[in-house]
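[09:14] KT: can someone run the structure on this one? pasting the chain below
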Amino acid sequence: MQQTSGSAADDPVAAQADTPRVLMYATAFCPYCVRARRLLERKGVDWEEIGIDGDSERFQEMAERSNRVTVPQIFIGELHVGGYDDMAALDRDGKLDPLLGID
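[09:31] RB: done, structure tokens below
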């Protein structure tokens, strides 16, 4: 996970309060998971990752929450963004930063 950038240097507690929780269900070596991590790193946001490698309960949890069985599955706050391609499309359209609380 990466440390939040931006105003976090001025007031880390306030910056965290304004930043939505990013949650990603992923596997260790999935190329789309790697790309999603890199995009989140470039954005400088924290995220929580739930590894589903060999964990059928976590896989079932992901499938029920997202109605999908592929990884990664990414949530920003309560919004299901989708997979890496979906998140990258939001970024290309200029819609990802506002979701992440980035100015």
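[09:33] KT: thanks! The chain has one domain: 6-100.
[09:34] RB: yep, looked fine to me
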